[in-house]
Amino acid sequence: MAMHGKRILVKLVNKATGSYYVTVKNPKNTTDKLRLKKYDRKTRKIEEFVEDKIK
């Protein structure tokens, strides 16, 4: 995934199952942690994923 300008890579993690997605965000416009509802492959349901650091 190419980096454009001020965008940074973030990891969206489902705390219950440990599943994650990797995406980008502009921290200047979005100062809060991302909380998105996405499909979890382990539970086969739409669940909430929360932003976490990429290690």
Net shape: elongated
Order of helices and strands: EEEE
Radius of gyration in whole Å, from Cα?
A: 12 Å
CATH architecture: Single Sheet
Low-confidence segments, given as residue ranges, are none
CATH class: Mainly Beta
**What is the fold named in CATH at topology level?**
Rubrerythrin, domain 2
Strand content: over 45%
Descriptive report:
The protein is an all-beta fold. It has one domain: Rubrerythrin, domain 2, CATH 2.20.28.120. The protein has no helices and four strands.
Describe, in short, the structure shown.
With 55 residues, the chain is mainly β.
What's the structural blueprint in terms of helices and strands?
Layout: E1 8-13, E2 20-25, E3 35-40, E4 45-52
